[in-house]
Amino acid sequence: MAVNTLRHEAKLKVYSRKPHKCSIPVNEQGKFLKVSQYYGENVFNYHLSKSLLAEDKENLKLVIEGKKTITKEIASKFANAVLEWSISKGVTHFCHWFQPLTGSTAEKHDAFLNFDNDRPVEYLSATMLMQGEPDASSFPHGGSRATFEARGYTSWDLTSPIFIKESANGKTLVIPTAFVSYHGDALDTKTPLLRSDLKINEAVKKFCQLIGMKDIEKVYTTCGAEQEYFLIDKALYYGRQDLVMTGRTLFGSLTSRNQQLEDHYFGMIEDRVLAFMQEVEIELHKMGIPAKTRHNEVAPGQFELAPIFKDANVAADSNQMIMTVLRNVALKHDFVCLLHEKPFAGINGSGKHLNWSMSTDSGINLLEPGHNPHENFRFLAVVATVVEAVHRHADVIRMGIASHGNDHRLGANEAPPSIMSVFLGDTLTKIFDSMVDGGNYTPGKSTAMDLGTNQLANLFKDNTDRNRTSPFAFTGNKFEFRACGSSASIGFPLSIVNAAVADIFNETNKLLESEIQSGKSSDDALIAVVMKWYKNARNTVFNGDGYSAEWVKEAAKRGLGNLRTTPEAIAVLKDDSKTKFLITNGVFSVSEIQTRHNVMLERYIKCRDIEFKTLKQMVQKQIVPVAIEYKSFLAESVKMQKDAGSDATIELELLKHLADVTKDLFMQMTVFDSMLNKYHEQLDEEKLATKIAMELMPHSVQIANLCNIIEELIPEDSWPVPKYYDMLFIR
Ligand code: ADP
Ligand code: MG
Fold first, then answer.
1. What are phi and psi of 426, to 5 degrees?
2. How far is the CA of 224 from the centre of ligand 1 (A)?
3. Is the CB–ligand 1 distance for residue 479 below 6 Å?
4. Does ligand 1 come within 6 angstroms of the Cβ of 307?
5. Which atom of ligand 1 is nearest to the CA of 309?
6. What is the pLDDT of residues 513-524, one digit of tens each?
7. Ligand 1 contact via 478 beta carbon (within 6 Å)
8. How far apart are CA 495 and CA 541, in angstroms?
9. Cα of 355 to ligand 1 centre, how many Å?
10. pTM (2 d.p.)
11. pLDDT at 441
C-alpha cells in the first residue's frame, strides 16, 4: 500500500511549527506599552481631534445622540478631521464596511488619492464619508425589488466608531455603514438592529418614566458575545476539500479520546495557541474592541474569546471584526480558524453566547436586582416582561438563529435544543411562584422574603444557580442567549430579541398606565405586571436539563414549539400572525421579511448542495480509490499466502468486509445523487429544502458513517485526507 505523501508531509510540517512572534506595541525607547496606552489607538475619536472646534464637537455629539440631524457642513468638518487623522497614521484608503445578508461583511476600498488640477492630493469629502453605492444585485436580495433596481446605498452609521485596520503593507480606514436598497429596504443586518434598539428605547424609556425614573433620556440594549472557534493547522486544513469548501468535515472517524475526560475546558493553553491569542488581542485592542477572556473550550482544538459588553450595535460590529481578526491572525500562525458550528462530528460544536441586557443612559442595568423594594419590583417586572417576550415570540426567535450549520448543534446533545425555554434558576422561580400562587418565599431557612433592602441583590451575589443547557438563561444580571451559531452575524438575532422585548414592553406599559390611573402605587402596578406575564409565560420557564430526552417530551406536553431544522424554522417567516410584531414595531417591513425568507431558504439549499457535491467528490476521488487499492493489495496477499501454503484467513476477512462496505458506499452515493438530482428537478425551493433536511441529510450521515468504517480499515499511512487525530491533536 502506498503511503499518502501529501498527508505525511503536512504532518511533518506541523511537527516542526514554533509559536509565531508578532510585534508587541512599544514606546520610542523600546519599552512595552501597557494595554491601556495603546487601547483604541486605531479608533477615530473626534473629541481628541485638533482640527475640530469645541462647537463642532458639541454639534457632532448631538448628531450622534440623535438629537440633531446631520448637515453637509458638519459632515464636511468631520470628514476633514478623519482624513487628517488617517493621514497622520499612514492610512491610504477608506472603505464603507457593511453587513449584507451573506452573514459576513463586505467592503469596497477607495484611495484617498485625488487630483487638485494636476497635483496629487489626499481627499475625503462629506459625501464620500456618508454614502457609497455598491451594486445591490450582487448581494443576496431574495428577489426583492432591489434585483431590478441594482442600486443600493451604504450610509455611514454615526453610532459605531470609525477605525483603522492594519495589514502587512498598509492601513485602511473602515467606516461602518448600513446597506439599503434604492427603495429603502434594509439589505443588511445592521439597519433592523438599529431600528430595534430605537424601539427598545421608546418602549422601555416609557416604562421607566411610568414608574418614576424621570431623569432617563435613553434606554439601549447591551451585548457581550462570547465567540467559540476551532484552530487547526493550515497544512492539514488544505488537505481536506470538505473543510475548504464547506467549513466542516463531512466524515471522519472519531478518536478514542476526544472530550470525555473533560480535560480541555479551561486547560493550559499551548504556547502556539497562546501566541495566536495574544496577537489577536493586540489587534483587537488597538481597534478599540475590548477582548477580555480567553480559554480552552470543551472539545480538543476548541477555544473561546469574550469581549467586555457594549451597546448592541457596536457589539455586533465588533463581533464581525473579531471573526475577521481571528481568521486573519490564524493564518499568520499557520493555523486556520474554523468558525463553523460543527466542524467535527461527535465532539462539541461552536456557538456564540449573546449576553444581553438593557441599560439606561444613567448607567442602570435594568436586569440588575436593586437595593430597595421598589428597584426589586422593577427588576422582577423587567424579567417577567422578557420571559413573556420569549414565550410569545419563541418561534421567531428560533428562526433568528436558524442556519444549516446551527442545525447540527441545536438539540444534538451538546447545545441547547431548538425549544426556546427560559432558565430563571431556583431563586427567581420560587419568588415568581410565590407571588403568583400566594405564600412567602423563604430563602434557605431564614425569614420570609420581603424584597427588602439588599436582600434580592445579596441572594444573587452568591448564586451558583447556573444552567449550561438552556437556550435563554438568566445569569444574575443579564440573559444569556446561548443558541446562536458561531459563524452567524449576531445583528439578526439581536434585532429579533429586541423587537420581541419592545413589543411586550408596549403592553406592559399599557397595563402600568391603567393600574396607576386606577389609583395603584407604581410598586403595586409592577406586581400586576409580574403576575400577568409570569402566569401567562410560566410554561416557557424550565430549569432542568435542556439536553435530556425527557425535556423534549415535556416541552411537547407544555405545547412549546420545537423547530428542529432550518426549513421548519424559516417557514415561520411566512406566517403573518407570527411576524406581525416585527412589522408593527417597524423593525422589518413586509418585503424585508420576504427577502429574509428567500435569502435564508436559498442559502440553506446552496450550502447543503455544496456539502453534497463535495461529499460525492471525496467519495469518488479519494475514498473509493483508496479502498480499491487496499482491496487489490489484500487480494494479492491472499493469493501469495495461498501460493506459499500459508493461512490467509485475516486477509480474506478484511477483504470481504472492505468489499462489502465499499460496495455499499458506492451504491448509496449513487442513489443519493440521483435523489438529489430528482428533487432539484421536481420540487420548488421550499419542498426541496424540506426534503434535504428530512431525507437527504440523514442519508448523508449514513454515507459518512460508511466512510468512517472504511477509514478504520485502511492502513494508517495510506488514508488520503487528514484524520481527526491529525487535526485535533497535533500542534
Ligand atoms: P460567563 O460565566 O458566561 O463566562 P461572564 O461574566 O464572563 O460570564 O460574562 C460573559 C459575557 O457577558 C462578557 O462578554 C460580558 O461582558 C457580558 N456581560 C456582562 N454583563 C453584561 C450586560 N449587562 N449586558 C450584556 N452583556 C454583559
Ligand atoms: Mg457564558
1. -65, -45
2. 6
3. no
4. yes
5. 16
6. 999 999 999 999
7. yes
8. 22
9. 6
10. 0.95
11. 61
Distance 16 CA to ligand 1 centre (A): 38
Nearest-CA residue for ligand 1 atom 19 is 309
With H, G, I as helix, E, B as strand and everything else as coil, classify residue 164: strand
Which domain, by its residues, includes 538? 202-219+368-444+462-471+498-586
Closest by Cα among 564, 575, 567 to 691: 567
Q: Which helix (H) or strand (E) is 603 found in, with range? A: helix 590-618
* 365 in contact with ligand 1, CB cutoff 6 A: yes
Q: Are residues 126 and 214 in the same domain?
A: no
What pLDDT does 445 receive?
39
> In degrees to the nearest 10, what's the CA dihedral of 62, 65, 66, 67?
-40
User: Quick check: is 309 in a domain?
Assistant: no
| Phi, psi for 602 (deg, rounded to 5) | -60, -45
Decide if 266 contacts 298 (C-beta within 8 A): no
Report the 3 state secondary structure along 261-319: CCCCCCCCCCHHHHHHHHHHHHHHHHCCCCEEEEEECCCCCEEEEEECCEEHHHHHHHH
Query: Which 8-state DSSP code applies to residue 540?
Result: G
Query: How far is 376 from 451, CA to CA, in rounded Å?
Result: 7
- Torsion-angle region of residue 355: left (phi > 0), alpha (psi -120 to 50) or beta? beta
- What is the predicted pLDDT for the residue at 414? 67
- H/E element holding 227? strand 219-233
Is 527 within 8 Å of 537 (Cβ atoms)?
Answer: no
- Residue 101 sits in a domain whose CATH number is 3.10.20.70
| Rounded Cα gap, residues 122 and 202, in angstroms | 42
357 pocket-lining for ligand 1 (C-beta < 6 Å): yes
- CA 480 – ligand 2 centroid, Å: 7
For ion ligand 2, residues whose CB falls within 5 Å: 353
DSSP bridge partners of 620: none
Task: Report yes or no on 236 lying in a domain.
Answer: no
CA distances from 163 to 149, 172, 287 (A): 31, 8, 6
The reply to whether ligand 1 has any atom less than 6 angstroms from the CB of 266 is no
Residue 56 lies in a domain: yes
Residues of the chain whose pLDDT is less than 70? 144-150, 411, 413-414, 439-465
Angle of helix 190-210 versus helix 312-332 axis, rounded to 10: 140
Q: How many CA atoms lie within 13 A of 485 on its CB side?
A: 28
* Residue among 355, 382, 465 whose CB has most ligand 1 atoms within 8 A, to mutate: 355
In this structure, the answer to whether residues 580 and 436 fall within a common structural domain is yes
Quote the pLDDT of residue 444: 46
- C-alpha 166/C-alpha 333 separation (Å) is 17
Distance 188 CA to ligand 1 centre (A): 26
The pLDDT of residue 457: 62
From the CB of residue 714, how many other CB atoms can be counted at a distance below 10 Å?
A: 18
- What is the number of structural domains in the chain? 2
